[in-house]
Amino acid sequence: MTTMTDIVRPLTGYGYEGQKSFFGGEAPLDEWIGYLVVLGFGALFSILTSAIVMIGKVYGTSSGMTSEHFNTAGRMVKTGLTASVIVSQWTWAATLLQSSNVAWKYGVSGPFWYASGATIQVLLFGVLAISLKTVAPRAHTFLEIVNARWGKPAHLTFMFFGFAANIIVTSMLLLGGAATVEALTGMDYRLASFLIPWGVIFYTSVGGLHATFLASYIHTVIIFMVLITMILMVYIKMYSSDQIYDFLDYTVTRTLDECKTIYSTDGTVEGTFYEPGKYACGEIDGNAEGSYLTMVSSGGLMFGIINIVGNFGTVFVDQSYWQSAIAAQPASAAKGYLLGGICWFAIPFSLATSLGLASTALMLPITADEAGRGLVPPAVATHLLGDTGAVLILVMLFMAIVSTGSAESIAVSSLVSYDIYRQYINPEATGAQILKVSRVVIVLFGLIMGGLSILLYEMGLNLGWVYLFMGIVIGSAVMPLWFMMTWSKASGTGAVVAAWSGFILAVIGWIAGAHIQSGEVTIASLGTDEVMLSGNLIAILGSGFIHIVWSLLIDPTDYDFAELNGKIRLVEQDMSGLGEEQQDAKLLADSHRWITRRGYILSFVLIILWPILSVPAGKFSRNYFAFWVLVAIAWGFGSAIIITVLPIAESQDELGTILSAMFPFLAPDKMKMEKKLMADDDEGQAA
């Protein structure tokens, strides 16, 4: 068993003595590596994905590209690929970076609350996904449904919130990604912000949603490969759960003077550059016994609530999640979202439980500013594996950025094509015209994505600040959209009033809270957990309350959902995924019941039952922490296997068809059968 006397004092022997920050303004990798990853990987995946799409067209059963197929992927995507796409879309730069930041700040509660607080939205969105398949299977965007049910005022209102969600998510992707690329390679963040989107523009504009889904699968597999590598390095190869436990204990038991000597230019108190809160050293305010090893954390809980509230907006108001539901088969829509949510949980939970906790256990000279910029994972990976670790995190981050970026690009193109161009500019637009607009928008949005992230950076906003802020902007649209799909009495006028009122009240409460708490309104005072929490809660709860009251007391209605689908027009008469088999009433009802029960139960377990059961443990014992780590490792491995294997297993028939067409010698029996059929046809014609 490791004892406290066995522990090498942090920083000693690591080469960090007197170092004021981990990266210190110097990149561990050469700048050319940044260009290689950003441009090389972007080009590689564009060529690979486009090639796969073309092979499917030539040798498979894919038909020619129509606007319907471009934006819906034929509405026949299966469970495994749906789950993989959900994992890919929901794995932002923040998922990889911010989750370890909250581990650095709060300990074990940070990764848990990040994972659970952002998983339940996907689980519950499965209910909306199957509702969409039931009442509006023809839909291309959620705004089409808004317009069909509530009319133009609501359509324009939720268009604002929909585009706001896409812009915030995309900006945040590049904000965290470009900062990490610059920290690891020295590549200018502004240049990185503009070059990264080119990795998605080509294949997304060529292959549409289908290409995005294929690329997302590849990206997700690579992300899980790096995830497994990092887990193994921290808890198997380099350390054990017992050692990390002792190191974390060592970190919080340091006195102020000991912290000053550790973070010092000459190993003395006089030469210190230590500031409380700037480095991981000493007790954690608000945590049981000041320990990282506890779920009893006021800061962790507060972050969890903000995370839960804010992420409802980025799922329910983001067209990319509606688009995945539209693309899925009815049965797959329910199972895919549930499976995707469960597998996605492993990424922030397992990654941050390894890299995030290791950063504080090893007391690396990571500053609060570096942690806020999302640099904890690259710092720990660099410490453990040197340049190789930095490259792995860079590749993992690039996969997350381009996978979500491609989903956001196709989402924005669909909104512009169907809800602006077709709705207000050219109502009689042909499929070819919509396809052209979709592709043009993908390219234009890709070009302006970089400018959006640079704007946030120049305003002095880091990844953590924007992540907490997003719920204030788009949270007020969540409840009206939920009611739109699930409540016949939901008023359209009430939805408009609730969305705008909730937004305005949230901004007022947010600013007032900053002034009350700090006596001033600055970026720093607006970014505190308490102030962000108040704004997020006002947005989602305020709008929900207003919409309910308005619908019941002021503008009562009783909408017939049977009318909804008839108001949504297809462009081409592409009935793929809309046949009688897919619209079977019993199948849809069973799927709705299946996802509703499991979605609610799993949500209850993740945000209520699990935390409550962890509270009596207080500060974790060595064995309790070992079990916690085992869960993280098992969840990571299990998710990696499912996400990698299931999509291939479900597509074996399609893959077999393509491979046998490309390489006939792989299926000689099939060749003989085809030759026999051809011979019989020739004999029949001769006769």
Q: How many DSSP H or I helices?
A: 27
Q: What is the chains' assembly state? A: single chain
The helix/strand series, from N terminus to C terminus, equals HHHHHHHHHHHHHHHHHHHHHHHHHHH
Report the major sheet: none
List unreliable stretches of 5+ residues.
1-9
Helix content: over 70%
Distance between the termini: 88 Å
- Strand runs, count: 0
**Sheet/helix structural class:** mainly alpha
Whole-number average pLDDT? 83
Strand fraction equals under 5%
Shape: globular
Q: Rounded to an integer, what's the Rg over CA atoms?
A: 26 Å
How is this structure best described in words?
This protein has 687 residues and is mainly alpha-helical. It is built from 27 helices and no strands. The chain has helices at 31-59, 67-72, 79-90, 93-106, 109-135, 142-150, 152-185, 189-195, 198-238, 241-252, 256-262, 298-316, 319-327, 330-361, 368-372, 376-385, 387-425, 431-458, 463-474, 478-486, 492-518, 523-526, 529-554, 585-614, 622-650, 652-662, 668-686. It is globular, with a radius of gyration of 26 Å.
